[in-house]
Design goal:
255 residues, binds NADP nicotinamide-adenine-dinucleotide phosphate, globular, 7 strands, Rossmann fold
């Protein structure tokens, strides 16, 4: 059964830039009503004004997803304004760089708070609304790096692997209630998070792939052939990359 977008309510976190902003625009083009959340309210308001000018119904709410009260107030605001929700896009994220052997625990905690605990809590708060619709979605913006952790990004990769493990449990538990789960795995994308050098795709390309995956009812969206390949040959590739990393370390290219 195809997902009909017109008139559906979508909540997108991390909508102030990058992939979240592109998702918001893509959903608006498909006729959705939107709740947009992020910390930078000036950027959210600018996006809301742009979309409202196109006739889209928008709620823009400043929200730090790591703050309990902000998440509670966001879910409440969606219920009060729209009376329901059909798509929750847990997209907000941060990327902290550091070596696995010496990065302070605090950095791991901060990354986990934003990328893992916040989407879990927001999902739990939104589930009653999502379950009231015959068909609804929770989308998690993961990463190709959920499949393969790389040197220097251990904390970030761990958050995405953990998020995918949570998403799998949620999918199995909610399938009988009409709530479906999408795991979105972008490749290197040209956003504020990583800059624009040597990126594989634009945020607009990621958003279109995500929306097509939702439309088609798919549970996973590997955004490039590299990520798809990684998903299929995960284990042999892991061994090859471990070997390559060892070589680079021996030659002094990595600390
Ligand atoms: N770019 C890539 O190469 C890439 C690859 C794979 C996966 N991803 C994932 O894609 C998602 C979007 O990232 P992006 O690439 O679009 O980067 P981005 O442009 O930096 O966007 C990150 C978004 O998350 C929001 N955010 C961060 N911390 C937040 C917090 N505490 N509370 C509320 N919102 C918060 C930011 O908004 P404010 O700063 O205004 O709060 C911003 O809108 C992330 O989950 C990221 O891990 C990105």
């Amino acid at each position: 059964m195809r997902f009909e977008w017109q008139g559906k309510v979508a909540l997108v976190t991390g909508a102030s830039s990058g992939i979240g902003q592109a998702l918001a625009r893509g959903l608006a083009r498909r006729g959705c009503k939107l709740a947009l959340a992020a910390r930078r309210s000036d950027r959210l308001e600018a996006l809301a004004a742009e979309l409202k000018a196109q006739g889209v119904e928008v709620l823009a709410q400043a929200c730090d997803v790591t703050v309990d009260a902000d998440r509670a107030s966001l879910a409440r605001a969606v219920e009060e304004r729209f009376g329901g929700l059909q798509l929750l896009s847990n997209n907000a994220g941060i990327l902290l760089k550091g070596l696995a052997g010496q990065e302070p625990l605090e950095a791991f905690r901060r990354n986990m708070e934003t990328n893992y605990f916040a989407p879990i809590d927001l999902t739990q708060r939104c589930l009653p609304m999502l379950r009231r619709s015959p068909r609804s979605w929770v989308a998690f913006t993961s990463s190709g790096l959920a499949l393969r952790s790389t040197p220097g990004l251990g904390a970030y990769c761990a958050t995405k692997s953990a998020l995918e493990a949570y998403a799998e449990s949620l999918r199995a538990e909610e399938q009988g209630r009409g709530v479906r789960v999408l795991v979105l795995r972008p490749d290197l994308t040209a956003t504020d998070m990583v800059g624009t050098k040597r990126t594989a795709q634009s945020p607009e390309q990621v958003a279109e792939k995500a929306l097509k995956a939702l439309q088609a009812g798919r549970g996973t969206c590997n955004c490039t052939w590299r990520v798809a390949l990684l998903a299929h040959i995960h284990e042999p590739l892991r061994q090859a990359l471990d070997w390559g990393t060892q070589r680079l370390m021996k030659k002094g290219y990595l600390p």
